[in-house]
Amino acid sequence: MRLRTKIFAIIFGTETRAGKTFDVFLLWMIILSVTVVVLESVSPLREAYHDLFMNVEWVFTIAFTLEYLLRVYTSPRPLKYMTSFYGIIDLLAILPTYLGLIFDHATFLLTIRALRLLRMFRVFKLGRYVKEAAVLVRALQLSKHKIIVFFGVVLTLVLILGSLLYLIEGEENGFTSIPQSVYWAIVTITTVGYGDIAPATVLGKILASISMLTGYAIIAVPTGIISVELGKAVRSNQKPLSQSCKNCGHDSHDYDAAFCKICGSKL
């Protein structure tokens, strides 16, 4: 039990020197393992160093497997850890290598290990940034219904534009179906413009021009919606700097003042 407690303090704790050293070492292992996976996806490197990549990957996988088992073993509530966010990520970080024994290229899913770098917030005491992230999440939640309506309008618009281009241009100009034409409309409205499909007729070009100009207006809408809600979320998170007196109108009171400093009225 004493050994289990010591291992728990090292693996789960960051207050002790040993615990922080372990977490920093773990973060470097995660970075190196993800780098190996990325390099292995490059064909010339894979052909030249295939065996080396495989051996290194198995070393990392075995190390992460042992770490995961130790976390389960030393955790006071193993099931709670296994079903927690970090527990699931830790498990997913080792599964692809074992799945690679059955399915080809499954090991490339190991880039999911990058999610384990979220531990940096705990290791380096970056929790204050979580509060700022919560403000952003709150803004997105407040924008949810407006964004849904916006996307509904956009989907209707691209469906109409795609159908019109399909009728105007036809299959001879590359618009072989309505889904293909809708794809063109999405690419055009978002101003991406791959150029793999383009209208050839005068009427089609006019409609394309209208779609492009409409795209500039459309892109600004979600940005404006989220910006407004982000401002509201930030203001709701801040303490008011002063209060205004309803009786005399004086507005230079402290936020925690109970009475007006000029007329004495209750704030």
Number of E strands? 0
- Looking at the overall shape, the CATH architecture of the largest domain is Up-down Bundle
Q: Looking at this structure, what is the CATH superfamily of the largest domain?
A: Voltage-gated potassium channels. Chain C
* Share of residues in helices: 55-70%
Q: Any low-confidence stretches, pLDDT <50, length ≥5? A: none
Largest sheet: none
CATH topology of the largest domain: Four Helix Bundle (Hemerythrin (Met), subunit A)
Strand content: under 5%
Mean pLDDT value? 80
Secondary-structure element series: HHHHHHHHHH
Oligomer: single chain
**What is the top-level CATH class of the largest domain?**
Mainly Alpha
Number of structural domains: 2
N-to-C CA distance: 59 Å
